[in-house]
Each structure stands twice: as structure tokens, then as C-alpha cells.
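User: What would this chain look like folded?
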Amino acid sequence: MAGTNRKAQPLTGGPVVVLVRPQLGVNIGAVARAMYNFGLTRLRLVNPRDGWPNREAAAMASGADAVIGGVQLFDTLEAALGDIHFACAASARDRGMEKPVLEPHAAAGALRTRHEQGEEIALVFGPEAAGLTNDEAALADIQVTIPANPAFASLNIAQAVLIIGYEWFRARVRPEGELKSVMAPAPKAELFGFFTHLESELDRSGFLFPPEKRPAMVRNLRNMLARAQFSEQDVRTLRGVIVALTGGKRRPRPDTD
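Assistant: Here's the prediction, encoded as C-alpha cells.
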């Protein structure tokens, strides 16, 4: 705690940090401490292995009570990202996806720009042993990879959060002239609903065939559509298009005689 100014107003907020299936309470606590070092206070857990609350996590947090006390629990990553507009997945390996892969400084800048525009943003980390699955990584908009020794590139999850949190903190001043997006992307819950709607109709039409190739086809389709950064209005329009194309509401065609 050396160097801590107990009279200073604590920084709060920042990106939501999502830990997917974290395995050890001590690691959750270390993540909470790393987050609070750089003013990140919103932590979400998806199916923590040892349940929650966790005494080991609270002890390891070492004073980061603002983080530990506000932990939110979710059953799925989709639910944890429901209100998020822009998500960044942390991964040490190439996923082979058509998705921007950035180093921490660049990823923090992208997140900071979105944050300043009022968007909800998130950093997503997988379990300690294996990291995120490809399907989980596909739910994010960008990937962040921390350069490290190729022969020993695996970082402890708290180390990864610390490095990215530091870059987030450092990116508080955005370079002049940086472009802002015109419209905020739709919250993930609406985007996921669109995906489900589209995929159900593609199943009905026989497009997602054969069954053994369906998971990869769905993943590729979601990646392709996510890159467009659809707004809420875009999503509503596209869902209307699906309804129209699949025999939903029809208006009488104008008389051409």
C-alpha cells in the first residue's frame, strides 16, 4: 500500500471486467486489486468454479473492497455482455478470426474513445488454464494480445488485467484529431438476439448444413456481422428484413395497372 493517498478521491468506473469461469478465488482477488490500482471497479463473474462470495478472493483483494463488494454474477458470457456496446477479448493466441488484434496500448485507446462517447465497454478474460473458447472470443469486437516471450507467453490473469488496466489509465488523454464513430453500436443483448433470429431462420432454410459444420459456420457469420458495428436502428431494420423474407408481415403490392 506504499504511496497510497488515503485522502484522495478514488477513481471508479471504467470498462467492465468480465472473468469467464475463473477457477481460483485468489486469482479473482488479485484481479480486483489490479483493477482498483487503475480505477476499474466493475467486475462480473461468469460461473466461478468455487462459487461466490469467496473468502480467499476477499483476502487477496487487499483493500479493493469497492471491486469485491460490487461483483455481479452471470450464468453465461452472453448475459454478462447484454448491456455492453463494445467488448475486447484478451487472448495470447491467434484465433484465426477476421477480428482486429491489438496490443494493450492500442486496445486501451479504442476502449477510451468508445467510453468517452458514452458507450458501455468491457474487457473479457477466460479461465486460467485454457483461456476463452473460440465461440466466446467471437462475441467480442476486438482482441487484445500482450507481447511476451514466445517461449513463455502465458500470463497470470491478474498480470494481464494489470497491464491492460495500466494502459487504460494512461490513455485518459486521447490524441487530438482522433475520429469518433457517428452512432453507438447496439447493446450486445440486441445483437445476440438478432444473431439468434437469423440463425433460427437459416436452420429452417437448411443453410446451416451439414450439422458438424454448423458451429464454425455460425461463428464465422457472427464475426462477419459483428464487424459492421450495427446500431440499434440497424438491428431493428435487419430483423424486419428477416421477417419480410421469411413470410412474415406482408403489405399488398401497389397496383401497377
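Residues 175-179 have pLDDT under 50 and may be disordered. If you want, I can go into more detail on any region.
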